[in-house]
From TrEMBL:
Superkingdom of the organism of origin: Bacteria
Topology of the protein relative to the lipid bilayer: Multi-pass membrane protein
Pfam families per UniProt: Glyco_trans_2_3
Organism name: Cellulomonas dongxiuzhuiae
Transmembrane segments: 38-58, 65-90, 376-397, 418-438, 444-463, 483-505, 517-535
SUPFAM superfamilies found in the cross-reference section: Nucleotide-diphospho-sugar transferases (SSF53448)
Biased composition (Basic and acidic residues): 549-563
Family annotation (Gene3D superfamilies): Spore Coat Polysaccharide Biosynthesis Protein SpsA, Chain A (3.90.550.10)
Cellular location(s): Membrane
Region: Disordered, residue numbers: 546-573, 590-616
Protein name in the entry: Cellulose synthase catalytic subunit
Amino acid sequence: MATPFDQLILDPRHTDDSRVRPQSTRPAESEASQSPSLMLLVLLAAAGTVVYAAFLLNPGNRGDWLPYVLVIVAETVLVAHALLAMWTILSAGSNPRGFTFHHAQERLYDLAEILADGAEDEPWLWQIYVEDRPVDVDVFITTYGEDLATIRRTVTAALRIQGKHQTWVLDDGRSDEVRDLAAELGARYVRRLSSGGAKAGNINHALSLARGEYFMVLDADFVPLPAFLHETVPFFAAPDVAFVQTPQTYGNYDNVISRGAGYMQAMFYRYVQPGRNRFNAAFCVGTNVIYRRAAVDAVGGIYTDSKSEDVWTSLMLHEAGWRTIYIPTTLAIGDTPETVEAYTKQQLRWATGGFEIMLTHNPLSRKRSLTMDQRIAYLVTATHYLTGIAPLLLLLVPPLEIYLDLSPMNLTITPATWLLYYAGFYVMQILLAFYTLGSFRWEVLLLAAVSFPIYVRALVNAVMRREQAWHVTGRKGAYRSPFAFMLPQVLAFQFLLVTTVVALWKAYASGDFTLALAWNATNTLILGGFIVTAWREGRRARAAARVRQRTEARGRRRAEADPQRVAAGPADEGARLALVGSDRAPAPYSAATPFTAATPTARTELSTPTDREATS
């Protein structure tokens, strides 16, 4: 197998002349996004969506006003977002890797320097050059209570990323064990006393200490691949590029929640984000991203007034005229939520941030320095989670017909006609998802249908300006029953179950099995499936807790029987160094003083494996 150094020597240099690179060198992900089969399927789905919308809006098909309004409001949100998503997918054929990228990538390292240093087998020591100028790169790993094994995997991989860089562990959990781990592995360690600004504040604080011209951000549960910098840094040869974002790819599709949460994002990362490149509207997703330091300085640092700091920072950069790039190339593999609790907290945080943009920073306002394409793209982002509230409105329609005989559509329309138009939208959407994901992912439909309480709460949070607590997706903690986070779904299931029984009784008495009965029964089964999933999750967690308790009890008994047994102590103090300022809370990050090692208002503990120094 060829080593990275062998590849530098053997790979052809496609930019030795000024001609355009051959079509055969186009990345595989660009070819996938331009697949004729995909384009045809998207066009058919768009046509089906338009026909369905015309059917709903036809005055002759209108039924009773209350259920009709519910259907129209919900379907308007779903149809509008479906059409805009398909338009973006059709725009995904452009390849951001132009001549400038390839020219910079082929000159990213100095072969003579590598040979002189004897570093052929140590690619993490290779100096990176952009435009024939050496540059420094910082890799920030943000942590907040994740387990040590997870952090160890990520830090170990980050230290071996190809290209010379500094790896920093930014520990907002203020854990001595994490500090010792960083010292053991040879990474820098930063701790702050205040958690102000959550993840954004953590990064901004590190920027007051780091010196790199570029900085990369990784969540503690995303393990980077060695080629991360090799595939992203060359984009910065273009002076207007603010950041390069790569997808969130997951490796823990182990249960219904993790598969559903992961696959829900798959189409976005594979097809929608690439389409946003054409509009210069690709946004950061918080991890697996590398920034130009000067761009972040220009907008005052990572945005701290929202827990969705990634999207807000992207918006600030676009308004300032910077360009962003997304590449659908997997360069880090992480964890998606595995429990109802983790999924609920993740979606609540994301949705609250989106609604905050919608309510406080309307992208369509004339005050925004955005192109029309960017305005539309950010409007879609800000209103995306309304599609998660739409199922709640549709959930109420069948009970209105079952209990009150209120129908959303003209009663002269046969169920077969309704289903024909309905299939034109929903069945085509399922076929499109089936094609892009490779198979039918029922877990996606399950989570999409039952997540409405999360998004309703997020909307209320945004309207009421409630502070949203920060939660880490991969954080491990004390077990809490999944039913503590899904009371609305349980109540909705009970209501729909009773409604289905009433509908069956009415159908048996009249001999007329209605579409409302089938619709309501389907909704009941979906919510019931979610409740069964939560019950199984709780059963597994309780079993694991019992095993853990037995293991701890055996350990205590052994310790009592052998009092000479001594637990391993902390890492050697000589392997750490501390950089400590005053005892007051850290000041907000400011682009005006981006290279301050330690300010009079900050207290920082900075650990490296080699030296000790203190400033005040």
